[in-house]
Design goal:
Blueprint: H1 2-7, H2 19-43, H3 50-65, H4 74-82, H5 90-102, H6 106-131, H7 134-146, H8 148-153, H9 160-178, H10 184-201, H11 207-224, H12 228-271, H13 279-293, H14 295-315, H15 323-332, H16 335-339, H17 343-366, H18 379-392, H19 398-417, H20 423-429, H21 448-455, E1 461-465, H22 474-482, E2 488-491, H23 500-506, E3 509-513, H24 524-533, E4 537-544, E5 550-556, E6 561-569, E7 574-579, E8 583-584, E9 590-599, H25 600-604, E10 606-614, E11 620-622, E12 625-626, H26 639-643, E13 644-654, E14 663-673, E15 679-682, E16 688-691, H27 706-713, H28 721-737, H29 742-755, H30 761-773, H31 777-790, H32 795-807, H33 811-824, H34 829-841, H35 845-857
Helix pairs in contact: 2-6, 2-7, 3-5, 3-22, 5-6, 6-7, 6-9, 7-18, 9-10, 9-11, 10-12, 11-17, 13-17, 14-18, 15-17, 23-24, 27-28, 27-29, 29-30, 30-31, 31-32, 32-33, 32-34, 33-34, 34-35
Length: 858
Amino acid sequence: MLFNKLFNHNYQKSNNVSRQFIIVCLILIWSFGFIIDRIWFSLDNTIPPWDPSEYLNGVMLYKEALKNPHFFDSSWWREFWLLSNKIPPLMYIITAPFFLILGASVDKGNLVLSLFSIVLLVSIFYLGRLFFNHKIALFACLLVQLIPALYVYRLEFLLDYPLTVIITFSFTCLSYWYFTKANKLSWYLSLLTGISLGLGIMLKQTFIFFLFFPICFAFISLLLYKKWEKLTQLITSFFIAIFIFFPWYRTNWLLIFTSGKRATIDSAILEGDPPLNTLEAWTFYGKVLPYLLSWHLFIIPLICLIYLVIKFYVQKSIKYKNIGYYLQTNFYQNTVNVKNNKYSLTFLITLWLFIFLIGGYLLSSLNVNKDARYILPLLPVLALILSALIFSYTAIGSSFFKIFTIILAIVLMMLNLFPLGGSLLTEKLSPKMQRFPYTSEKWATEDVIPATINLNPYLRSNIGVLPSTPEINQHNISFYGSIPNFQVFGRQVGVQQKFVLEDVNSLDWFLTKTGEQGSIPESQPATVNLVENNGDFNIVNTWQLPDKSELKLYHRTLPHNEVLSLSTNNSKVKLDEVIIPDKFNILQSIPITYKWSGSLYNLENGIVILNWQSLNSSEKWTHDHGIAMGNLHSANVNTEELKQDFQVIENTAMFVNQNISDGDYILQATYLDKITGETYPISTPNIQVTVNKNTPLINSNQPLDLVSQIRQLAPNLSQGIEGLDPIFSNIGRINQYDPTQDYLKVTEKAMQYRLQSDNNLDYLYTLLLSQVLQQKVVQAIATAKKLVEINPENAFNHGYLSVLYLYDWKGREGEKALQPALKIKPNVIEFQYLKGISGLMQGNLWKVWQVSQDLKKN
């Protein structure tokens, strides 16, 4: 009964399809896909590979932020948008409630894709109803659930399936608006279109590839035909879209631009994608399209198209003299348009669909980075056309033809998703689309996390992940480590040969694997060799993996931070002991051990302001840092443990300013609460050290803490462009060692505290660098102003202030701040670029042209 009603080819009865029938059909179609997906996930033991794990990590960050939202606090929104500074965060935001309610896991994350499936089915149905009829629309919904590429890619937590859905939804909204006369309804549709456009751009920038040409066509046609009200509606929808996506893009625009080349051009070169000046670049997606659809969904509609063409030419002189009438009655089969003799509309609809499909194909081909899944957004609309072609066949056995198409698609779906045999059929009809659940022994990726926490229950751990395979990589280690309140992180280190030694010396944890290493840099074997053979690490645990290789977890014998429990409670922080050479040379970093004790709460929130003060003069050097270098972690302990006292042992190193004189120095310490700002002096042991430039160097590989490293780098800012090179070449490496970037927050608060009593230029440069790296633009502008005020003779201080204004989209202020720099050093080419950018931001194209001409002369 249901099949008979759906597959009947008599389109003149299509309006008799009841709303209840449609709802039941859509629910059944969605439920079928949902059940298949859930069965697949229940069987699958796969560890999420690189990209899905990275996206899941993004969800975890937004889940944490949405636990305690402050929707009316602008600073909270800024921090909210900064959580994902390269990838638009819509997918993370949508998925976060699932994690909050159901708990975090790979399967829970993929539940959100079932929600997207509902939106896709409803969108494609309404689009089909607009241009075709209910039956063609419902059949297209069936095809959408049965197209191999769509059901395969919705099994992975990637952006491609959600992007497909949001593009289809947006195209449906745009189509309804465009083909609706200007009235109250069209205004509502324009608002919905604007919302869908904004959401699409907040999901992935390639969204615009597929809607660009339809939007341009709509705009130009409305302009030519002087449809002013509709044109106003379209422009209004643009403003609504901008309102939705602008806050995130405004906050992160610089990183988006700078990371764009790596995500597209560099990836394309690395993957060997064909260059744009070759035919292969423009036929790539055409070649993979039959695999994405399956050959039978390609061939059967092709047969129906041939039938449609032959029928037109056979009956042209008898019945179908008007091709518009023929297409409307035999292809689109829209009874409303047939009844109203709207055959001219048929050509507009055909052109509209053609523009969407061809425009999306061309712009996707124009993207140098190619992957079969990037063309997915065209498939739902293509399914609608395939459905119409199949329904255009009205000869003998037409119902059987439709039923055969669906049954064969279902059989292929089962064979593609489950190991039921039938490889001969799948290889012929849907090659490269098999995706079986992994049902063998589970990989030990998840087990690494409890093994790490058991050894360091009160510390946040950062693991250097040296293999990079789909099952073992830094992203999935970070994801599983984020589930217990972000206590364990994974980072890929040993990437550059020149930093291998620093990487090995800076981390307490490493993960190595025998056998297949995956996509690794050339320096990775050297890193593995150092970890396994330099004697600084012990093996904590070993796991046998399903591929017969071995996974090893290493921990440093003398870790940088240790935590010991004490029997006392609620104590203020005190310094129990300092272990340091009695005499040393300042030409090297000085190894030092601090032993702090106090309650876990006070230790975790404590910054220690340390002065090594001369006994004979006002000379000193500093060693400010967070206790345990900011790595204490109390999120998984109970209230009683927060009050309990612990001892923290820090094994680190400090640097001494090169202008420090020989002599004796003592330690002075102050506690700074990084939350409340409370301070109090810390009693210190009776410790005295001697600086002597003739003392032999100490043999030590102990690295500087991260606050000290950034303090060493920051004064280079005074040198301008030349000084930026050592900063940029090191800051990425340093950031790898602190996955939460806590060292930047500590640096900022420590420098702010010191600047209350000492306007030291080095402190100001350190404060500025820490604020810039945190993208705290308002605070960084205030610091740069102070730099300009204290040291106005340095042209680069003015340049930094100008850059910060321009970053904050304040062109006029940026131009004003740049004027002194241009007077002091007019020949610095970077200042000319800033002058041009400030003119562009103010809309002064004449000034931009003048600057470009001046640059050409130079």
